[in-house]
Specification:
By secondary structure, the chain is an alpha/beta fold. The protein has helices at 26-41, 64-72, 88-102, 124-129, 133-138, 147-162, 166-181, 195-200, 228-231, 264-275, 292-301, 310-315, 332-335, 342-356; strands at 7-14, 50-53, 78-81, 107-114, 203-205, 208-209, 216-217, 219-227, 239-248, 284-287, 338-339, 369-376, 381-388. It has a nine-stranded mixed β-sheet, with helices on both faces. Strands 5-6 form a two-stranded antiparallel sheet. Strands 7-11 form a two-stranded parallel ribbon. Strand 5 and strand 6 form a beta hairpin. The radius of gyration is 19 Å and the shape is globular.
């Protein structure tokens, strides 16, 4: 089913990520960001009849969508929770687009975020809480350090197979820090970093350094999806969903056929096919970036460069908002921060902000099309979106 251009982002909001949430709960953060998104869309809360949420990093997830709906005093006719790890936010947008197109609801609120629990990933119990049975039985006995180990394996293998260098990976963190310096909401927006700074930062899991690891924090983001014919009469420039695609090939990395090939290869292909567009048509890239190697593999498998050429590709392009290949202009999760599961949503909100022309100092020119990708697990589940200012932007 091709629903290209039939749904649009009509409203959105994002809270500034924080290391310390100041005693607020996940529900309080979601309520605040929902209120801002509703105002941004020029709607009333009673207009919202769809609700999609991603699970929080803390609090009970039991009946979480109903908990959120009750707290917000909503009575949606379409409600669900989307749990695909870091792909959850993009996947929620896809499901909202399908729902409004099918007539299940008119305006669907997609909420993501919460309070970050510092014990997640940092203790044995925390690791086990987010691991499958296979990971617990076959990986944990060898002492992995959560996701750091999985992505370090991918990076090492990519270096071995294709000659990718640590300097090329570090450049991604450096360019994204430059973007963060122009974003007043980014966690790390005070000081530029160099490739030498990255490589001199503590080596956490070879070859990944401290400055190449996503920074978890607290925060929230909201996006409202409406039918295109309604969005066009709302206050903001509508941002149309032109293409969507998802793919999953494994959960645990031990079941991956090749750890240097990700399901982005298929999710991106499906999104581009629906939109009738190609990677070369994109003006902005908004890619999940828990580690630099994630960006490199995504660029390759989404078709922006040949397989194995990702390292040289990022080395030869300026990835800042001033450059020839703007990527993660908000700073990415490496410098903007990863607010609970809202980390994936920040890539959506930044793309929308850019397409609306609201990115202020970091606004890129001639921006009409954006490729957004969410990544769940260790390059496991992928959700790809193509967003555009025009309903039928086929080049």
């Amino acid at each position: 089913m091709n629903i290209s251009g039939r749904a649009a982002v009509s409203g959105m909001a994002e809270l500034k990520p924080e290391i310390d949430a100041g005693g607020r709960s996940s529900l309080e953060l979601l309520s605040e960001v929902a209120s801002r998104a509703i105002k941004d869309a020029g709607l009333r809360k009673s207009d919202l009849d769809g609700l999609l949420v991603t699970p929080p990093a803390e609090d009970s997830c039991f009946m979480w969508p109903a908990q959120v709906a009750e707290y917000l005093k909503m009575s949606p006719s379409y409600i669900n929770m989307v749990e695909l790890g870091g792909a959850s936010a993009c996947a929620a947008i896809t499901r909202a687009a399908l729902a409004v197109t099918a007539g299940l609801c008119r305006h669907c609120l997609c909420l993501s975020g919460g309070i970050w629990d510092s014990q997640v990933f940092n203790s044995q119990e925390g690791k086990m809480a987010v691991m499958s049975r296979a990971e617990i039985d076959f990986e944990l006995p060898y002492g992995p350090m959560g996701f750091n180990s999985g992505y370090a394996l991918i990076a090492q293998r990519h270096m071995y197979e294709f000659g990718t260098t640590v300097e090329q990976m570090a450049k991604i963190a450096v360019d994204q820090r430059q973007n963060a310096l122009a974003n007043p909401d980014a966690l790390f927006n005070k000081q530029a970093i160099s490739i030498e700074d990255v490589l001199n930062s503590p080596l956490i899991v070879d070859p990944i350094h401290l400055l190449e690891i996503v920074r978890p924090c607290s925060g929230a983001a909201a996006v409202i999806i409406s039918r295109s014919e309604e969005a066009i009469d709302m206050p903001n420039v509508p941002v149309y969903l032109l293409g969507m695609g998802e793919a999953c090939t494994h959960n645990s990395i031990i079941y991956s056929d090749s750890i240097t090939v990700s399901p982005v290869k298929w999710s991106a292909a499906r999104a581009f096919a629906m939109a009738g567009l190609k990677p070369v048509d994109m003006d902005l890239l908004s890619l999940y970036d828990c580690y630099p190697i994630t960006v490199i593999v995504t660029l390759e498998d989404a078709g922006f460069c040949d397989k194995g050429a990702g390292g040289f590709f990022v080395q030869s392009h300026d990835l800042t908002y001033r450059g020839d290949l703007p990527l993660n202009t908000h700073g990415g999760q490496l410098s903007f921060g990863q607010p609970s599961y809202a980390g994936g949503m920040s890539h959506v909100t930044e793309a929308v902000r850019q397409l609306r022309g609201e990115a202020e100092k970091r606004q890129i020119k001639n921006n009409r099309l954006a490729f957004v990708n969410g990544n769940g697990g260790v390059m496991s589940t992928q959700s790809s979106l193509i967003l555009g200012r025009d309903k039928h932007d086929v080049r």
